Description:
With 782 residues, the chain is mainly α. It has helices spanning 2-10, 35-38, 94-117, 121-145, 153-169, 173-185, 196-205, 209-221, 228-245, 248-261, 265-278, 281-292, 312-318, 322-349, 353-365, 372-386, 390-398, 405-421, 425-438, 443-455, 459-472, 477-489, 493-506, 511-521, 527-540, 545-557, 561-574, 579-591, 595-608, 613-625, 629-642, 647-660, 665-699, 704-723, 739-744. The chain is 65% helix and 0% strand. The longest helix is centred in the last third of the chain and has 35 residues, at 665-699. This is Intraflagellar transport protein 88 homolog.
Amino acid sequence: AKLTNLRMMENIHLAAEDEDDLYTGYNDFNPTFDSEVANLPSTYAMSDAGAARPMTAVRAAGYSSSLARGSTFDPLGQSKGPAPPLEAKNEDTPEEKIKILEKKVNDLIEESCMAQANGDLQLALEKAKEAGRKERALVRQREQTGTADHITLDLTYSVLFNLANQYANNDMNTEALNTYQVIVKNKMFNNAGRLKVNMANIYFKQKNYPKAIKFYRMALDQISNAHTEMRIKIMQNIGVAFIRMGQYSDAITSLEHIMSESPNIKTGFNLILCYYAIGDREKMKKSFQKLICVPLGIDEEDKYIPDDPHTNLVIEAIKNDQLHQMERERKALAEKYIMTSAKLIAPAIETSFAAGFDWCVDMVKSSQYVELANDLEINKAITYLRQKDFNQAVETLKMFEKKDSRVKSAAATNLSFLYFLEKDFDQADRYADLAMNADRYNPAALINKGNTVFVKQDYEKAAEFYKEALRNDSSCTEALYNLGLTHKRLGRLEEALDSFIKLHAILRNSAQVMYQLASLNIPYSNPHQAIEWLMQLISVTPTDPWVLAKLGELYDSEGDKSQAFQYYYESFRYFPSNISVIEWLGAYYIDTQFCEKAIQYFERATLIQPNQVVWQLMVASCYRRSGNYQKALETYKDIHRKFPDNAECLRFLVRLCTDMGLKEVQEYATKLKKVEKMKEIREQRVKSGRENSARGRREGSASSDSGQSSHGASAKGERLSVTLRSLPGSNEPYEASSQGEIDASYVDPLGPQIERPKTAAKKRTDEDEFEDEELGDDLLPE
């Protein structure tokens, strides 16, 4: 041991003060004591000059204070360069091909689902079919490689299920049913029996209700009681299918079970319908009570009222989030079903509908839907209106004058509207003011107020009310329409045109708006634009004779007789009693030398206005022009018997008898002279009266009154002399009538459906252009 220590001490020497490396000497050792290390691989040992040495803790690994020896600090071995690349996979192996094919099938299923979500059903079906083809190729490849045991059933199920869904979405019901059948019959698919619900839905869509019920029940048998919600939905479908088949008793069985297990609003409503169909009053009442007790599963609105300033931010964040929107939609749907149910059963559960409504109101007041009671009362008033019991409707609405502002405003709005329809404008104005005071932001109240001002011809003020209604509700079409009419009355045609163009953008198919746009283009001397609007109008109301007649009039003014004839003829087909249309068609055939065809139109005019001799004279003239002199003579004789003092008829009788060499010519000539002599006497009297009237005005104030009277008589006589070609006797009907006289004798039996053009068959007043406030949601809810 001492010898060994001495030998080791020989190899150790102290560092001198002038030596740089303090660790020199620690690397020196006697090889005789290191026989094992000498046999190690060189990779495990290092030396100062690169010779092999064991990795020891004698000095820091990888560090040397002597940089001149060429070594650097590189503990990670980065100086050796990048690692060699990984060995590339061989894609030609069967296993790799199978994996690639599986990924392709999954990608196609995903693409199919995304296409369906984007609404491209055809592309979704194509992708589903391609996924099916790829999946079958994958199965064949596994069978060829002997790995059939590794076939993925989940992938096969996904492919078939997606394909069946896409068939159903594209209304390929037979293919969808066949695909579902493949899945259901395969025992290797777990829970495949649930897909019988999908098959039942397809049968339901095909209206094959017995088979749908059969498959719903088969699906119900394969779903455990643990899945309560799914079982309830299937039973709902069974109940609806029975309702469609008219088997209300079977439907009631399913629906009653649901209401006892898991009640919901739709099921309760369907149950009421079934009991209403079979006429069971007591069950209707019980079902209604169950309906209003169904829990909605929503929180109270109080939680959206902040209790302290610290919760304001949270309340603002959740006040209109998706959850609150869903709660509002659910509550609105429940209120709709309850209102509909009440209106349905009210006349059936009691001896009178009023008593039935009262019972429903009492039930609703004691439920969670207290605010619906007032709406039911308003609907009660609506029902009175539909029964034409105006007084009861008014009395019911007047009960709301002492209610809260919202209900008071709605009731007063309806009362104002009702009095406006009754033309009691003072009461309409009073209740419009009451509605506005209760709720100044109620657009319907502002429109009614504007209407009452409109009928008083204070158009500027009416326009202000309509504008205020639009500021409160920019989508209020009634306010925009009436504002356009108001501008039209004030002569602001550009502003009126702008209002109706805006309204047309909202109501694309409104016939009234299109007509207003057409009528506003006529004063601008823009018949082509007016024709374009009327063409759009007849695409919406193709059988409106007034619009067709107006089109004919516009084409006639443009000189296009063939187009004018087409539209006038269409108008005559739909309404063959329009005198102006009949007159135009008769004149058209005379101008085109088809007098025989004109006869039928003038004969129809004779039937409509038998006391107007002009139409009968036109019939006789058509016979004469067509060369049928015998028929013309008979017609003139018939006219003479009805109108013996008609000079024009006598002239043609004299001419025809002379041409035909008949003996009656002298008799008719004598009568003609007598009629013409009486005409001269009347003309002299008219002339004398006119002269006396002028002389009386010059004589002074003493005879002014008599002069004015004489002037009135003379003016009337002058007007008659201008209108008539000859003045008959005092008991003789007019030969021809002015356009206004013909109009006044005719009334449209059907009544205009929209504001129509002014035609000769029916005069229209300014009131016809004004549209009252429509029966909005406050008065006639759906």
